[in-house]
Amino acid sequence: MKSEIEENEVRLADKREQVADLEAELAELKEERTELKETLGEARTAYEQTKEQVDETESRLESLRQTAERLDWEIDELSAQVGAYDPEEIPDHDELEREIERLEQEMESLEPVNMLAIDEYDRVSEELAELEEKRETLLEERNGIETRIEEFEAKKKATFMDAYEGINGQFEDIFARLSDGSGTLFLEDEADPFEGGLTMKAQPGDKPVQRLAAMSGGEKSLTALAFIFAIQRYNPAPFYALDEVDAFLDAANADAVGELIDELAGNAQFVVVSHRSALLERSERAIGVTMQQNNISAVTGIDLSTEVPADD
């Protein structure tokens, strides 16, 4: 046991020496680590300072680039304003000094200057600006009114042309029915119908086309009645009064007019003054006026709306 203890003590001494060596080495490593930490801190500080210097340098570089671009732009602008020039024509310094002196003398010759003119100029400028603003407003209003007038004129023309075409179609149909001929309406100025007139072109039966003044009384009556009935068909009215419109018509034409009035009476009321049986036979009520003795008029009425027996 003693021998073993001695061996262990020898081994323990060795281990203690090893531990002492390790502790010495650890102390050296700790000291080295401390030095490395200090070196790293200094490196980081140097890095931060260098980075700041780099950022400042880049910022200055970018500012210089912008300044260079601005100067290039100003050079281009000045070159465009100056244009082509001859360097020899540019005056020297002495000549510029003389020109400046001459201009200063001219300015002095304009004195005394009314300093209130600046205030007066500002006041007049404000008034001018207000007037120009009002002018612009008036121009806008005028343009709006002109636009509305053009729209109304276009609508008026479109409405007129619709009525004209509709009435003309009815006129052609009715005139052909009454006269066995052809008739139409036409405008003297189709581009601007309100600047020209409306003319009837009529050809009753087999007769040639002629002016209205050259037609007979019956032909004029048929043409006028065809126009009136065409308007009535296009835009019916509830009541019509006709005074001896068949006075110049022969029996056949009077019968044709009576037939047409009888047809149109389904949608309107007609009061007709006539001496012709063609109209009297188609009326619902007849009122007769006769001259009695002593120039006294007598009025009689007959209800023709119901059929009267033959033996009555």
UniProtKB/TrEMBL annotation:
Spans traversing the lipid bilayer: none
Keyword GTP-binding listed: no
Residues annotated as domain RecF/RecN/SMC N-terminal: 44-297
Segments forming a coiled coil: 5-155
UniProt keyword annotations, A-Z: Coiled coil
Domain of life assignment: Archaea
Coiled coil in keyword set: yes
InterPro entries: P-loop_NTPase, RecF/RecN/SMC_N
Protein name (Swiss-Prot/TrEMBL): AAA family ATPase
